[in-house]
Write a structure and sequence with these properties.
alpha/beta, globular, two-stranded antiparallel sheet, about 40% helix, seven-stranded mixed sheet
Length: about 325
């Protein structure tokens, strides 16, 4: 094993985590043959097979399980060294590792650009993922900061609310309820709903927004893509519960409308989250301060508005 390289360990770890050569290749921005070659070299160094294929799926061998544990320890040690070296660089020249739930990709790149404009020399490592993936990144120490609506309850994290995040009920402009005022939830419940998948931040917010009335809703379709949901609603397939931050363009274009439903919009918050025992590098500390100071104003400027107001903001959960 003395000739194994860090690159081979990182490629192996990605394949083992995804249990897929193709997904690992996509994550690492490599070709699948290149990934296979790196894993084969590591297996040659080990003198043992690290994966076995059963049917169409690959699985770790016992040797592969041990290699995965050792690889993560080594990768983490290198990352800690890198973070220590970053401390000497300060903010300028540092690398910002940040991830955000999918609703944030409608405005978050603009915030990153503004932060980089203020701090020349900063390198950005930015990921967009669903809630489950985001929590995995936090748990596995793959990101310094996470931006989400619901901080984890079962992880020791520091959670700071930095901007309001309204959720609304949307429909096509010609929907029969579009001209109605103060629509009761009981009337809305008769409409087919096109919604995000269970477990997503949007679904969890919808559970909070509808409370005991959630079971009464007519869930016609669950879709993992917010963009596809918007297209379905525009086509007249039903109504939906979405973040107001994801529909600003459609509202401006007149292709979607916000229904005036009693008890809505649901006002939540954007949180910046990090592990409590995480030693944040200066660039991550600076970005957290940037979000706390200017995040709300920049989001409003980017989106155009915070969305319809109706429900008083809930208390921040720290």
């Amino acid at each position: 094993m003395k000739n194994a390289t860090l690159r081979q360990l990182k490629v192996f770890e990605a394949v083992a985590r995804n249990l897929s050569f193709s997904r690992a290749a996509e994550e690492l921005h490599l070709t699948q043959p290149a990934v296979s070659t790196q894993v084969k070299k590591l297996e040659d160094h080990a003198g043992l097979a690290l994966f076995e294929q059963l049917g169409k799926k690959i699985h770790l061998t016992p040797a592969g399980v041990e290699m995965l544990h050792a690889s993560r320890v080594i990768i983490q040690q290198f990352k800690e060294v890198e973070e220590t070296m970053t401390q000497f660089k300060g903010v300028s020249g540092g690398k910002l590792n940040v991830a955000v739930i999918s609703a944030g990709d409608y405005f978050f790149p603009r915030l990153l650009v503004e932060f980089a404009r203020r701090h020349s020399g900063v390198t950005l490592n930015f990921g967009v993922c669903n809630r489950e993936e985001l929590l995995e990144q936090l748990s596995d120490n793959l990101t310094d900061l996470a931006v989400m609506v619901r901080p984890p309850l079962d992880m020791d994290t520091v959670n700071e609310a930095f901007a309001p995040h309204p959720y609304v009920i949307v429909a096509a402009p010609d929907h029969p309820l579009a001209a109605r005022k103060r629509i009761p939830v009981s009337r809305l419940a008769r409409e087919p709903f096109v919604v995000r998948e269970k477990g997503s931040d949007t679904w969890n917010s919808m559970e909070e927004g509808f409370g005991r009335h959630l079971a009464e809703l007519n869930i016609a379709m669950e879709i993992k893509s917010t963009e596809t949901i918007k297209q379905a609603v525009m086509a007249g397939m039903g109504v939906s519960f979405l973040s107001a931050h994801t529909i600003s363009r459609e509202l401006q274009a007149g292709s979607l409308t916000v229904l005036d439903v009693q008890g809505f919009p649901l006002m939540l918050h954007w949180y910046v989250v990090h592990r409590r025992n995480k030693r944040l590098p200066p660039v991550a500390q600076a970005f957290r301060s940037f979000l706390m100071k200017d995040g709300a104003a920049l989001i409003e400027q980017t989106i155009g508005a915070n969305g319809p107001q109706g429900r008083r903001p809930q208390r921040s959960r720290k």
